[in-house]
Amino acid sequence: GALLVSERIDREELCGTLSPCSLSFEIVVENPLELYSGTVEIQDINDNDPVFPSSQARLEISESVAAGARFPLESAQDPDVGINSLQTYQLSANPNFALDVQTRVDGSKYAELVLEKELDREEQRELNLVLTALDGGSPPRSAHVQIYIDVVDANDNAPVFNQSTYKASVRENTPSGTLVARISAYDLDDGPNGDIVYSFSSHTPVKVRELFALDSTTGELRIKGQLDYEEAKLYEIYLQAKDKGVVPGVAHCKVLVEVVDVNDNAPEVTVTSVYSPVPEDAAPGTVVALLSVTDSDSHDNGQDSYDVYVLENNMPGIPILNVSATDPDLGRNAHLSYTLFQGDPAVGHLFSINRENGTLYLLTSLDHEDQVEFNMVVQVQDSGFPPLATNVSVSVFVTDVNDNAPTVLYPQPNSTATYPDVVAPGTPAGHMVTKVVAVDADAGYNAWISYTLLQATDSSLFSVGLHSGDIFTARQLHKDDAPQHTLVILLKDHGEPVLSTTATVSISVAEMVKEVLTDLTDVAPANDPRKHVTFYLILAVILVSAAFFITMLSLGIFKCYKWRQSKELFNNSRSTTYRTPGPFHHIDAVRGGFTPPNFYHQVYLTTDSRQSDLLCKKPFTSSPLGSCQSTIRNGEPGLYHQIVGTASRLPAPAE
Questions:
Q1: How many CB atoms lie within 10 A of CB 580?
Q2: Range of 32's domain?
């Protein structure tokens, strides 16, 4: 009755993934005849390795993909069951990806790559990872697959010029086609994103485009028209390099082309005044005509003006020009002196000239943002009799230096009230949310501002335009995104050295503005010390007004009372023509504090003194207020009226 194994049992072949795996049989027993049923359970052993569909896998991931993106991987298969089946996956160490192992409803395992750090094709074009599948046997069996990740280029790099300013000199009348300068830029991106096209900037004047030609492929700047020094001495040409991406990156540079003068203009003689006819007895030295000679060429070819270029923020007291003149006379007649004539009154405070050698000094530091050009006239005069003189014009141009950082206009910096911009959940990618507005007080290339997202609550949610400052959604907003976002935008100019500043933008993700207002009201307001000051100011105004009203009311009652008393006294005094002087009285103003205590007088009045002037004697003792009469006539009006009113109540003296 022994049950034996007749051949090797393969559980996976018999039952596949079913568990438990069992085989049923029946046994017939004779004498007596009986039938028995039996079942044999085939237990699994870890005799199979996990198997991947292929030995390697290749993924293409764009470098613009934000962190947190997930990429499913093909699963390995293990025919064993239970603990011997596939249990987990492992990923080789790397700085960019992590592995997330998930469990299906049926208990099987699968793995996903999770991007933890954004890729940069310019830093690493390809990543090689190893994915390992492990079962739960003891010892565990495993399988490996090579994962090759190709980093797909995104247009995340703008072209960069190898220098921001190019300088070149070219003689006027140079033939067309002559090479002036060759600009060069590079772009770290690949394919169309890294192909560069050179062109003039949009604000380049038409005249410059007529005189110069730019090769869009090589960046060669050549003469196209006829240069004339007398028309323009310097050309400031702004050029740009743009890649061929869907959203092209742009870089800018400038080329300073100095036109060198050629002596191609003859001097011109102009007769400004003629005395004709000349008397036959005219004395020697009589002026016959006034002539002026001009030459459009420069320097020795025809110097009557000087152009001086000075960097702003210069050191005070530096020499900037030496005006040189010669006189063919001898002795005193050849001794020259230089005088500066200012067309602008400010020039005299800024410039000075040495009378002996013609050296022009700059007395103070100049600011390009205040004034760009100064014009003046230098007169050179000899010491003969009559003295002869000539004038030369001098123009000083202040060249800009990058000494001003960008200034943020919106959002207002250091503002106590913060009202965030609102964007609704579900807003698609590419939607403009707000805009950072800034200006730079510098000029030209130093004033060009670029905007970069420096810090964000969620760096994958928003992006900023490099040259516009526009803030866009980088992906669609989800309901589980954070409700409040704070972005820190870095603003840099293109000067040397680069100056920068930051702007903080608050963005709220909400369905309606009402939600944002509710959030704002929930925030406890900061203690504002000014509200206490306002309360005390209001209280002070109320108290002062009340005191003023009470004072005026009391003064009115007092005046009425005094007026009635004086009226009664006047009526009583009319019955007596003369009255002897009473005892000594002093004016009530003394008690009021208007005059010193030693200011006492004996006052004598008639019955009609209310309608006459008050005459006083000198004070008994010296007083700093002088005589009584001058004090009353020239002093405070209130004092004068109080003296008159009080004196009118004194008894009238007898004749």
A1: 8
A2: 11-42
